[in-house]
């Protein structure tokens, strides 16, 4: 099911500024305008720029591909290649930039798309992933976004489909994306694999080969554990001592790379993120997913009017690199990134999203008129 087209002006026109409470900020922003950003969303190029690391079709003929992947196996932890320092902005500045995009009407007749990571972006990290469930504040925010018919909201997460269904399944206008794009649930539909031919059974061979090495690392580093998803194995070390966890991650990555090369597992990606080492199917990444969903809207004749992509980790760099020209991309937290802007914390991001979720002036006026004639 495609997101429907809209007629007329964006509902974001005239949205009033909310009163935001924020913690003290770091230094003044490097830039607070989007003057350097060019291009709109009408003409989706259909391909990722050469800077993207996941532009190839994962289902294409594999001749020579495994060899090439193994030759550069030591590069996977930096495969998203973040570069540059995003402009530091606060929620009020982001809201002004977002309203500016609506006044410029960069895109087409479709809704405004939100592509939101979950852990470290919407929700602060916890010692163990299962503890990081949506808070009442986050639930209220997402419910408000869900109520806006001019938005096409997406949660694009590394979480498995069970977690997303359990905690976010009631959001009937959200597209839920699990395991970085391995599965998704569109509004009004059930869960499906994003890529044809990459079902759960295809993941079992490489998992059987690499799982023992990851379990061994969990036994060697106190406070670490292995999480198994349909398309990935993840070694978590957030609860481990800092030095032991760091050394363990480095040693595990090296052992996995050697094993991958020896076994010819060219379809497997090894990546390092926020206190994790993740092994996953190479054909799955957030960038391919975001690019594909935007292309669907173009083919349906109603490209997204605007695109917002937000994340905090290396897997989100694929999403930033693949977002259409003119998109607003936001990095949450410290570190180099391809994103244009940065906020310091999930709290600041939620402040900004509350502005987007707020009813606009036209809607409030219409609601007042209806109540006055009732």
Automatic annotation (TrEMBL):
Top EC class, one word: hydrolase
Domain of life: Eukaryota
GO MF: alpha,alpha-trehalose-phosphate synthase (UDP-forming) activity; trehalose-phosphatase activity
E.C. code: 3.1.3.12
Assigned keywords, A-Z: Hydrolase
SUPFAM superfamilies per the UniProt record, alphabetical: HAD-like
Record's compositionally biased regions (Polar residues): 46-55
Family from the record: In the C-terminal section; belongs to the trehalose phosphatase family. Belongs to the trehalose phosphatase family.
UniProt-recorded name of the protein: Trehalose 6-phosphate phosphatase
Natural source organism: Alexandrium catenella (Red tide dinoflagellate)
């Amino acid at each position: 099911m495609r997101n429907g087209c809209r007629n007329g002006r964006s509902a974001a026109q005239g949205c009033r500024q909310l009163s935001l409470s924020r913690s003290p900020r770091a230094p003044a922003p490097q830039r607070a305008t989007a003057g350097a950003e060019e291009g709109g969303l009408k003409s989706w190029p259909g391909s990722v720029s050469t800077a993207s690391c996941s532009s190839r079709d994962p289902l294409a003929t594999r001749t020579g591909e495994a060899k090439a992947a193994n030759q550069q196996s030591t590069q996977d932890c930096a495969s998203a290649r973040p570069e540059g320092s995003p402009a530091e902005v606060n929620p009020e500045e982001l809201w002004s930039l977002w309203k500016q995009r609506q006044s410029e009407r960069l895109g087409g007749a479709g809704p405004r798309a939100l592509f939101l990571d979950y852990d470290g972006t919407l929700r602060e990290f916890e010692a163990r992933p299962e503890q990081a469930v949506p808070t009442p504040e986050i639930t209220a925010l997402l419910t408000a976004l869900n109520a806006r018919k001019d938005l096409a909201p997406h949660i694009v997460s590394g979480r498995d489909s069970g977690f997303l269904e359990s905690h976010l399944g009631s959001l009937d206008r959200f597209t839920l994306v699990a395991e970085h794009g391995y599965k998704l649930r569109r509004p009004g539909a059930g869960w499906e694999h994003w890529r044809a031919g990459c079902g759960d059974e295809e993941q079992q061979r490489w998992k059987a080969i690499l799982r023992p090495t990851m379990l061994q690392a969990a036994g060697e580093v106190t406070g670490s554990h292995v999480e198994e998803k349909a398309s990935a194995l993840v070694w978590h070390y957030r609860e481990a001592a800092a030095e032991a966890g760091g050394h363990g991650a480095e040693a595990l990555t090296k052992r996995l790379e050697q094993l991958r090369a020896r076994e010819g597992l060219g379809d497997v990606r090894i990546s390092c993120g926020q206190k994790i080492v993740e092994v996953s199917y190479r054909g799955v990444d957030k960038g391919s997913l975001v690019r594909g969903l935007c292309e669907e809207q173009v083919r349906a004749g109603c490209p997204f009017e605007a695109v917002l992509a937000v994340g905090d980790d290396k897997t989100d760099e694929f999403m930033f690199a693949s977002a259409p020209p003119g998109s607003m991309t936001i990095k949450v937290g410290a570190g180099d990134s391809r994103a244009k802007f940065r906020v310091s914390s999930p709290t600041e991001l939620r402040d900004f999203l509350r502005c987007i979720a707020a009813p606009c002036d036209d809607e409030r006026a219409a609601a007042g008129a209806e109540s006055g004639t009732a």
